[in-house]
Design goal:
Elements lengths: L3 H6 L4 H4 L15 H14 L23 H9 L2 E7 L3 H13 L3 E5 L3 E7 L3 H7 L2 H4 L2 E3 L6 H8 L15 H6 L6 H14 L4 E8 L5 E7 L14 E7 L7 H17 L4 H9 L1 E5 L4 H9 L52 H16 L2 E11 L3 E4 L12 H16 L8 E4 L4 E6 L5 E6 L9 H8 L4 E7 L14 H19 L23 E3 L5 E3 L13 H9 L1
Parallel strand pairs: 7-8, 7-9, 9-14, 10-11
Antiparallel strand pairs: 1-3, 1-4, 2-3, 5-6, 6-8, 10-14, 12-13, 15-16
Helix pairs in contact: 4-8, 11-17, 15-17, 15-18
Organism: Tothia fuscella
Pfam family, one: Peptidase_M14
Function: Inactive carboxypeptidase that may play a role in cell wall organization and biogenesis.
């Protein structure tokens, strides 16, 4: 077997890849049953010793009693795990790491231009390195090197002394809600509060029931100036802002609620948002995966899938973003229920994905709705992705429009206080290598994908439902905390995304400059910046590219031309 001898010989390479913080150990018996079984199978197949030799010992402060404390329980569950970042630069490296992650049932956290982040048990590291070329065995480093994974998770959870949000009309309630991540038991009452406080333009709706019977709730925000009794009335243009498709991506849920709250409270105060709410309906879905989200709070903070049973009793859950009907490729991905990206036995098997699609199709066929945009929030890696996800061999018919708006969204995100950079690319381009060619220009080479991309919500809404502008936005950060983004980022991330959503609305209105925005944009030195406007709540809006005076070197058109060379 190809990894039999290599698994033990690579033990000496561990010190190059894993520093002291990666060598600590905790009892394996406390891990989830499915993880213990897969680790056991991997150890047997690749002949990994039952007890690994420690590289360097590090004393750990033990929280006692472990079984009764949160820190102890987290250490027992996640203490053996580590997240490694591999720098990938060639097609052979990308192919090798993709095959290895599939063979070893590993949890791929993120992949971007030239790196792949993978979570795995520390005693599986020799097996992984044994399957990789020498160039990758020394091209890896742990994320969060200063803290154990369990400690980072512990810090991301609400503390016991943190004030809890209670639905109330008091002004301070709003601030408390976004001071920390909120469980489903708080989000649902908050949504009901919003609909009851602002009945003129907010309505609580349900997309259906999850597998475990929870409501998939959403807020419909908008004002209808049209006559509903008119049979010839125009179709209502509608924009979807969704989060929580993957349960562990808490920042996507918090960001969706932040945008909803700001938009709701700005109606009647801001002429910009009053116009946008009269021009569009906005559907906010904080958590499309309520069962999985609840499970991340009660049991496993890093749970990704829904909670639906699979053919393997100890491996529950289907990846909702791999189970939509367009270009579903679950049969080609091996159909391993223990995989974090398991697509089910057939398309639409995941209950929540089917509910989402059925609701959207019913809206278009029976409720006179025209979906004009989808913004599906995820984390992490700071990217604005557009169709197609399933393959780079097919180009979407509106590629230039998708690229143009994606660049504008990314620029508006960068214009915030923290200047976080967001990459724009097709969702199919998991890894891209840029090589220098003659004349100093860069040639783009698309490397093999680390995960398959078929059956995505992004592709289905774009291709099957005809949503002209469909995007998946991966929020903060770039890997320092991964899915455990500290709560201090909730409001700054919400403000960044609010800017992007404002830009989206203006773009769909044709880039018109609303009266209150004219002349308000200021640089720090007091001079106006062309194409950028300051709005309520410090939101920055970037003018639609085609209304700028010319396509200079800093314009989105120039960036587009540069990308195509």
């Amino acid at each position: 077997m190809r990894g039999l001898h290599a698994a033990t010989s690579t033990l000496t390479l561990l010190s190059l890849c894993i520093p002291t913080t990666c060598a600590t150990s905790h009892p394996q018996s406390q891990q989830p049953s499915w993880r213990r079984i897969t680790n056991h199978l991997v150890a047997k197949i690749w002949n990994v010793p039952a007890v690994q030799m420690p590289l360097r010992e590090k004393k750990i402060h033990v929280v006692t009693p472990a079984a009764e404390s949160r820190a102890g329980r987290l250490a027992a569950r996640y203490g053996q795990d580590i997240v490694l970042r591999f720098n990938v630069s060639t097609a052979s490296e990308a192919r090798a790491i993709a095959e290895a992650t599939e063979d070893l049932y590993l949890d791929v956290w993120a992949f971007n231009d030239n790196y792949v982040d993978i979570r795995l048990a520390k005693n599986i590291v020799p097996s992984l390195l044994g399957l990789l070329p020498t160039s990758l065995q020394t091209a890896c480093a742990p994320l969060m090197p200063e803290s154990a994974l369990a400690e980072v998770i512990d810090r991301s959870l609400p503390s016991a002394d943190q004030p809890t949000f209670t639905p109330s009309l008091k002004p301070s309630s709003e601030d408390i809600f976004f001071q920390d991540y909120q469980p489903l038991s708080v989000i649902s009452p908050w949504m009901r509060l919003m609909s009851s406080m602002f009945p003129t333009h907010v309505r609580l709706i349900s997309l259906g029931l999850s597998y475990e019977g929870r409501e998939i709730e959403a807020l419909r925000v908008g004002v209808h100036p049209t006559n509903n009794d008119d049979p010839d009335r125009p179709r209502r243009k509608t924009i979807i802002i969704s989060g929580g498709l993957h349960a562990r991506e808490w920042i996507s849920t918090s960001t969706a609620t932040y945008i909803a709250q700001k938009m709701i409270t700005q109606y009647g105060k801001s002429s910009t948002w009053t116009t946008l709410l009269e021009s569009f309906d906005w559907i906010f879905i904080p958590t499309l995966n309520p069962d999985g989200y609840e499970y991340t709070w009660s049991t496993d903070r890093l749970w990704r899938k829904n909670r639906q049973p699979t053919p393997l009793r100890f491996c529950r859950g289907i990846d909702l973003d791999r189970s939509f009907g367009f270009q579903w490729d679950g049969d080609a991905s091996g159909g391993n229920p223990c995989s974090e990206s398991y697509a089910g036995e057939e398309a639409w098997q995941a209950v929540e994905s089917r509910r989402f699609a059925d609701w959207a199709r019913n809206e278009t066929e029976n409720n006179n709705v025209e979906f004009t945009a989808l913004v599906d929030l995820h984390s992490y890696s700071q990217q604005v992705l557009y169709p197609y996800s399933y393959s780079c061999a097919a180009s979407p018919p509106t590629l230039e429009n998708l690229e143009e708006l994606a660049l504008g969204l990314a620029k508006s995100l960068r214009q915030g206080n923290h200047h976080h950079f967001y990459k724009t690319t097709s969702a199919c381009e998991g890894n891209v290598n840029f090589n220098s060619v003659k004349g100093g220009r860069k040639k783009k080479t698309i490397l093999p994908r680390i995960e398959r991309g078929g059956g995505s919500a992004l592709d289905w809404f774009y291709h099957e439902l005809g949503v002209k502008y469909a995007y998946q936005v991966k929020l903060r950060d770039m890997g320092s905390y991964g899915f455990m983004l500290p709560k201090e980022n909730i409001i700054p991330q919400g403000r960044e995304m609010m800017q992007a959503v404002t830009y989206l609305g203006r773009y769909l209105l044709g880039g018109q400059v609303l009266k209150e925005d004219e002349g308000l944009a200021k640089k720090k030195d007091g001079r106006a910046e062309e194409g950028v406007h300051i709005m309520d709540d410090d939101a920055v809006v970037v003018e639609k590219p085609h209304v700028m005076k010319e396509a200079g070197e800093q314009s989105p058109q120039f960036e587009l031309r540069k990308r195509r060379r």
